[in-house]
Amino acid sequence: MLNLYLAMLAIQAGFILPANLNAQVQSPETFVGFRVGEDRKLFGWQTVVDYFYILDSASEKITVQELGETTLGKPFLMAIISSPHNLLNLAKYKNLQKQAANPRHLAGDDMRLLAKEGKVVVMITLNIHSTEIASSQESIELAYRLVTDHSAGTKRILDNVIILLIPSMNPDGMQRVVDWYQQYLDTPSEGAPLPYLYHPYAGHDNNRDWFMMNLAETKLVSKQYYHEWFPEIVYDQHQMRSESARLFLPPYTDPVNPNLHPLLLAQMNKFGKHIVSELQAQEFRGIVTDAFYTAWWEGTSVMTPWWHNMMGILSEVASVQIATPLYFPKGSLQGGRRGLPEYRARMNFLDPWLGGWWRLRDIINYELAITFALLDLAAREKESIIYNFCKMNKDAVERGKTEPPFAYVVPTTQHDPVTAADMIDILMQGGVEVHLAEADFIADSYKFKKGSYVISLSQPFRPYVKDMLERQSYPDLHDSPAGPPIRPYDVTGWTLPLMMGVETVEIESPFDADLTRLQSLETPPGKLVNDGERGYLISHRTNRSFALINHLLNKDREVFWLRNEVEADGTILQPGAIYVPDNEIEPKEIEFLARKLSLEIVRTNRKLIGQPAYRINEFEVGLYQPFTANMEEGWTRFILEQFEFPYKTIYNAKIRNSSLDGDYDVIILPDMTAQEIIHGRKKDRPDMYSPKIPEPYEDGITKEGVQHLMEFVEKGGTLIALDSACDFAIEQFGLPAKNIVKEVPESDFFCPGSLLEILVDNSEPIAYGMPSNAAAMFVKSPAFQPIYWSQRTGVPAYYPDYNPLLSGWILGEDKIQGLAAVLDIPVKKGCVVLIGFRAQHRAQTPGTYKFLFNAIQLSAAEEVVLED
Ligand SMILES: [Zn+2]
Q: Looking at the predicted structure, is the pLDDT value of residue 355 above 90?
């Protein structure tokens, strides 16, 4: 049957069948040795890779590409699945997609023709969250079915759709989960949560990176989205908590982001409801829509494409314990979530599942059924989908010509020009068109210099440009007028220029300028200026200068920070200017570093003898890593590596069992609660129904550890507490500060992820190099009232006396007005630095990295007066 069919197809298509197609394609079951999704059975990433290459060599309907390497160096795969005819003509279809994504020169009829000629491109992304393991296993069965099923329905799909299938968005994490699960199989810990992050840096937050492009995997897939394939539809498979609906599908729930095209939302609603209807016909139960997941926030792999006029369909199936089945007795299923207050039938939840056994294979069955229903609709409505994609892109171009804002301009004068260039790079990876001004120009009565970046709003991905660069205004949502706020799904503000500390000007009226489209970005050139012989001076304003210092310390060179202002090549450098004595490094060597790091380094002739300074000595950093898989720990590690900070990871046992004397100069506690730090995952009551946490991963640092940390500080160490870890330090050490918002109910104060203005005292060493105001990411964070005492407490940053909201949502802002945001508290010979917001939030806030970096580099510093 197979051969006959293929032969007929080959004759129809007019090409000769290659010999290897006569071979039967090996099924997933024979390849892995068990039925995919069998209870307690998993295979790892290499099996997926091997099987995809088997399909590649056995079938003309699939071609497998290695897009690049994962964070840990594994192959990252994308399979292209379509009819043999389409695969032979991929270049043509890719070109049509490019035109659909940028139809500014196409008339309506051209767009109709393009829609007729083209194929709809559907990107299917699996297993971004590694513990949501089902889809990684499903991947091989899905591909097998698509290339071996000869039904009319599948033929229609392959004829009309080009499927881009990513079997795992995080192969490193998939392997970690499989290894962990297999290690504890048949023990009381079977199915227990991982004690470390599955994505090596981001854990679950690998799905919060999709506008910031920090991770290797994000970069690889975003390139396919916004530069290679421009899929009209992205479909992403997830799993959610176990005890509620079996499956979530769009429509998404309120609030809705005003920058999204209504046609996009209408189409996503249609897809969601269509799939529900198809699944219901096949007797899949327990499907909820219009619930849980909002249409507001960007940052995930399936949502960020919305602002590029691409449909993003999310499915969330109820989880098991990795691969261990769960039994749901009557009465154990619950609502209690947004859109599903009670577990009973309603218009968005037509047919509640009644309970019983729930298995890995059930999840796979739902996922396969959704995928085929989605592909079937995409195939049937190919032309309208492509046309609508063209139309939305064209609407965006036109709207940007007539409606403000008309552009965003990133001027040449920047506090940190390298970070400004990084922002442009990130936007370009996201498919944004950026222009460079070839001459000075005026817009909205601002004068801009030649070399400014101009981001026009008249471009196909206008919604994305606007959403990234404007200030968010989250709607004030409550269940009842006086009731508490409805929690947003994630953060409410993500304005890129604010997070990165990049000056960006919104232009409200049309303007003329001589612009050329930037094809690739060149980072600002670094250079060595002047030829003085008394040493080198570097401003403290550029984040990269910390990498320079780390590099020099690593080579045993002397580095100082000047405590007073100093003039260098005609500009005044604010306190904190970095000084390297002339005899420490050859001009050629430092010039090489200047170029590499895009820094301007001045070779000065100025006499600096007698200047007060900090000598920056080599330091030992200990970054605390709990066994609760803390994502902010991972992101902190990520930026430490990016800026060449040496560090060691400290685990609970080290803090619990030994004095920390002499091993570290500084210890960093990432954002986490005191309970989590002290007790880890240890429960105060026995519980026989959850997998047992393996013993070494259960407890936290314990009371002994708290004592060791205190002694570490008293003997001269620096403890840096980030965000909610500040409460731990305040309470356990009895620091002279109060977190004023700790006990305040959400109806009185609520700020769940917003950018707030902070005023910065940049004469404080912790704030060296900062501008005098900045945006802090406040995520249910503390705000401090320092208490006067016999020691000097430094206040490097504090909230203003007016509403500090810059982007997002805040309720009860008067509660934090005037309070401290960062405190530098001496404790005997050491100190505690409290950074009361997310200074390094998801590696998305370079505008506030300096608080953390300064506190680290100061940890072994000495106050000195410069000598000859
Ligand atoms: Zn997920």
A: yes
pTM attached to this predicted model:
0.96
Whole-number Å distance, alpha carbon 125 to ligand 1 midpoint, is 12
Contacts of residue 530, Cβ cutoff 8 Å, sequence gap at least 6: 569, 602, 603, 604, 605
Tally helices (H) and strands (E) across the chain.
Answer: 24, 40
For ligand 1, the distance from its centroid to the CA atom of residue 129, given in whole angstroms, is 5
Q: How far is the CA of 128 from the centre of ligand 1 (A)?
A: 7
The CA 206 to ligand 1 mean position distance, Å, reads 10
What sign for the dihedral angle of Cα 506, 420, 298, 169? positive
599 Cα–ligand 1 center, Å: 40
Q: How far is the CA of 121 from the centre of ligand 1 (A)?
A: 23
Q: How far apart are the C-alpha atoms of 132 and 325, rounded to whole Å?
A: 13
Query: What's the helix, strand, coil split of the chain in %, to 5?
Result: 35, 20, 45
Amino acid in position 309: N
CA of 84 to the centre of ligand 1 (A): 33
**How many angstroms does the Cα of residue 506 sit away from the middle of ligand 1?**
35
Q: How far apart are the CA of 488 and the centre of ligand 1, in A?
A: 17
In whole angstroms, give the CA distance from residue 373 to residue 559.
63
Stated as kind and residue range, the H or E segment containing 622 is strand 621-624
Q: Can you give the pLDDT at residue 1?
A: 37
Q: Return the pLDDT at 56.
A: 98
Interval 486-497: pLDDT, tens = 999 999 999 999
Question: What spacing in Å lies between the alpha carbon of 341 and ligand 1's midpoint?
Answer: 22
pLDDT tens digit string along 364-402?
999 999 999 999 999 999 999 999 999 999 999 999 999
Question: pLDDT of 605-625, one tens digit each?
Answer: 999 999 999 999 999 999 999
CB 769 within 8 A of CB 854: yes
Phi/psi of residue 517, each to 5°?
-70, 130
| 656 neighbors 677 (Cβ within 8 angstroms) | no
Q: Annotate 359-426 with three-state secondary structure.
A: CHHHHHHHHHHHHHHHHHHHHHCHHHHHHHHHHHHHHHHHHHHHCCCCEEEECCCCCCHHHHHHHHHH
Compute, in angstroms, the gap from residue 133 CA to the centroid of ligand 1: 10
Distance 126 CA to ligand 1 centre (A): 10
State how far Cα 383 lies from the chain centre. Answer: 34
Centre of ligand 1 to C-alpha 318, Å, is: 11
Task: Quote the pLDDT of residue 23.
Answer: 55
Give CA–CA dist 83/154, Å, rounded: 10
Is 9 a residue whose pLDDT tops 50?
Answer: no
**What is the largest distance, in Å, between two alpha-carbon atoms of the chain?**
91
CA atoms within 13 A on the CB side of 605: 6
Let me know: does 271 contact 225? Beta carbons within 8 Å. Answer: no
Cα of 235 vs centre of ligand 1, distance in Å, is 13
Tell me the per-residue pLDDT of 100-116, one tens digit each, with 9 for 90 and over. 999 999 999 999 999 99
**Residues 32-47 pLDDT 10s:** 999 999 999 999 999 9
Which range among 20-29, 515-524, 770-779 shows the weakest confidence by mean pLDDT? 20-29
Distance 39 CA to ligand 1 centre (A): 21
Residue 620 C-alpha to ligand 1 middle, in angstroms?
36
240 alpha carbon – ligand 1 mean position (Å)? 6
205 Cα: distance to centroid of ligand 1 (angstroms)? 10
Q: How far apart are the CA of 236 and the centre of ligand 1, in A?
A: 9
* DSSP state letter for 227: I
Q: How far is the CA of 132 from the centre of ligand 1 (A)?
A: 6
State the pLDDT at residue 125.
98
* 238 CA distance to ligand 1 middle (Å): 4
Cα(3) to centroid(ligand 1), Å? 40
CB 708 within 8 A of CB 653: no
